[in-house]
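Researcher: If convenient, please comment on what follows.
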Amino acid sequence: MDQSLQTPEQQGWLHKFLGYDFKIEYKPGKENLAADALSRMFMMA
């Protein structure tokens, strides 16, 4: 981890995630279609 933890909330989340094997990758919006679709509000007219 390269960033320092600033808040107790961040430290708590880190403690929860330490037991898992995962990798966080940044994906620009055009490459991250699933997150883009989930973040858009669906409205029926």
Q: What stands out?
A: The helical segments are 8-17, 33-39. The chain has one domain: 8-39. The chain has a mean pLDDT of 77. Residues 8-39 form one domain.
